[in-house]
Specification:
This protein has 248 residues and is α+β, with helices and mostly antiparallel strands. The protein contains six helices and 15 strands. The strands form four sheets. A six-stranded antiparallel β-sheet has the order 10-15-14-13-11-12, with helices on one face. The protein has a four-stranded antiparallel β-sheet with strand order 5-6-4-9. A hairpin with a 3-residue loop joins strand 13 and strand 14. Helix 5 crosses helix 6. The longest helix has 19 residues.
Length: 248
């Protein structure tokens, strides 16, 4: 079964269960998965919302509700943790994620990870909170103190996207990167090959990698962008794309 079919099949199971239980939620979805689920259930008679701990979260849980049972409680769906460390130390997103994965924690049990000065915050499934707080004492060689915080204590990290529309020859990474940040195709390829680009939080050094709607790009020195939409074809045979640039 294709990954897309498996995802939709699982979401349909959750939607069916919510009729009997009142509320069913998925694990954390990527932006592309959340968009796919949202589109699929757009015209279906099921109440669907997304919860990521704060507004505009990138990774979210799909929550199916039986409207007759009332609303869901965010505290039952999301746990928020704060990691504190010495001011002279620096941790990146990949450092924290790698430390979690080293415990065998699956990626879809953890939502967004936000790095701030001298601390980091992350959201996770409530059932993972105690395990992480008890076991995560180091990230690499850096000692960390982990504690659970209320969702209202999550940092205000709402981001406004600057929308940009352009055309590209293909959905290759170098082409989309060029359009998003106003670079030449050659320069974009150099940046990618130099190891300065993450695609959906993972390093990518392949300029020819094909992208999909919802793909998040992080480019060292330039910022982040998300491929919001792929439109039609221009008279010259180029694809219309709409990208969102995160303000820096």
């Amino acid at each position: 079964m294709a990954q897309k079919d498996y995802l939709i099949g699982h979401m349909e199971d959750l939607a069916d269960k919510s009729v009997k239980t009142g509320c069913c939620a998925s694990r954390f979805l990527t932006p592309a998965e959340a968009r796919l689920v949202s589109e699929y259930f757009k015209y279906k008679s099921v109440k669907l919302l997304f919860a990521g701990g704060y507004e505009n979260a990138e990774r979210v849980r799909a929550v199916f509700l039986n409207a007759d049972w009332g609303e869901s409680d965010r505290a039952n769906l999301i746990a928020a943790l704060k990691l504190e460390y010495r001011s002279k130390d620096y941790l990146g997103h990949r450092d924290v994620l790698g430390a979690l994965m080293a415990f065998g924690i699956e990626r879809d049990t953890v939502g967004d990870i936000v790095i701030d000065e001298n601390s980091a915050t992350l959201v996770c499934l409530p059932e993972m909170s105690g395990f992480i707080c008890e076991n995560l004492t180091k990230v690499g060689r850096t000692g960390v103190k982990v504690s659970e915080i209320g969702l209202e204590e999550l940092p205000n990290i709402q981001k406004e996207l600057i929308m940009k529309t352009d055309t590209v020859a293909s959905l290759r990474l170098d082409a989309v990167l060029s359009a998003a940040f106003g670079l030449s195709r050659t320069k974009a390829a150099e940046i990618i090959s130099g190891g300065h680009v993450n695609v959906d939080h993972l390093p990518c050094m392949q300029p020819a990698k094909e992208l999909n709607e919802g793909t998040l790009l992080s480019v060292r020195g330039f910022g982040r962008a998300i491929l919001m939409e792929v439109g039609g074809v221009s008279r010259k045979g180029r694809l219309f794309v709409r990208v969102g640039l995160y303000g820096r």
